[in-house]
Amino acid sequence: MRQPSADERPLIRIRRRDTAAVAALGAIVILLFWMFGELGFVETLVAIATIAGLSTFYYLTVSTTLNPARGPDVDDSAPAPVDPQARAQHMLDSLPIPVLLIGAGGRIELANPAAREFLGLGSAAGHLSAVLRQPQVLEAVSTALRGQAVDPVEYSMMAPVESHVRAFVAPLRAEDDRVMPWRAMLVLSDETSIKRADRMRADFLANASHELRTPLASLAGFIETLRGHARDDSEARERFLGIMFDQTERMQRLINDLLSLSRVEMDEHVPPSSETDLAALVEDARDYLRPQLEEKAIRLTVRKPASAPAIGDRDQLMEVLLNLIENAIKYSPEGSAVQIEIAGPLMRDEAERPELVLGAQASRLTLAAPASEPRERYFAVRIRDEGKGIERRNLPRLSERFYRVDGQKSGPKEGTGLGLAIVKHIVNRHRGGFTVESALGEGSVFSVFLPVPAAVREQARESV
Which H or E run contains 96? Predict the structure, then answer.
């Protein structure tokens, strides 16, 4: 092995010091996650052992990778020296969790790509208070900058979508900085899925037990009757069995809708990235619902462009269309018409304004709205029925779970009251909008508008 020269020895000491510092930083991160329950004991030991082994190997072999003064005896085939700082930066950039290094005055000195995406940071990081307006987190960072230990901080945001985050803050000593000897390392852990899963389990049990109580009581009563004095009454038996079948179907629909709502809420904070053609999706929905249309002799007319690309999950958007069109069919009289229109790309105010006008006496309400973005464009899907209409006082509650409008019962196949709640949560996940307009005696118009891909948005802006 080549012995280091006098010129190389200071550089070797610096790199070995940097290697030890990087290994210590990695071990601190792993220990923080173990202390707060994010990693198991075995995983923590394996991770620390791996970091220690790699660091030791590099510590012992660092001298063979240095060659500051290239001479005629230098082997050009030898690998280039590895900068520990570059290696540490590469490790940090590879982490899927947001990590930031905060310096004096709360200024962001370093942020990995996950943190930039999570906080929406640009090329210039700036101050933490400008991108994270959470007083508890800012206070914890200030405490860490004074060299004091800090407990984890939890915070929640309700807009534009609900999210729950746990912030881990730890002080880091900067030996080479006498003016500001302390830095703060901030690690953000998105716990939205965990929180929602816990709440949904509780909600599911509460809602299911409440809504299933009535049909289960009916089934128990009919079964007791059939086992008693109606045992030999064939006419009563057939009537009771028909009612029992309807109640069983209602429970099945209720459980399916509750499960669907739970799945939607689980991913509501993560917007979709795929594209879906709304024009083709409407045709598929019409084919699926054709038997219901024929059963009530309802005419379905569709006005749409050849294609209407939108950003969205195809299965969830199909669920939106099926819910809204089924409601239009369910609450329209026999022999009436249902109209579907796709318009766009439109600005937000144009997308919210219905084209299927019901008249001056109509009431209108926005049930879900996207975050204000002046450059965004939307495709709007509007569905109009010819039902009884909905009173103004009932509009704000339409998207509540299990809410049913008085006088809008739909017979033995009554809905579960979850359809519009599912629509609202899907639209929220897609960062779109959901509006309703209704007039008594004329019907209702439900509108959903969804963002378009970037290429379509730019093309629409250029054509203006």
Answer: none
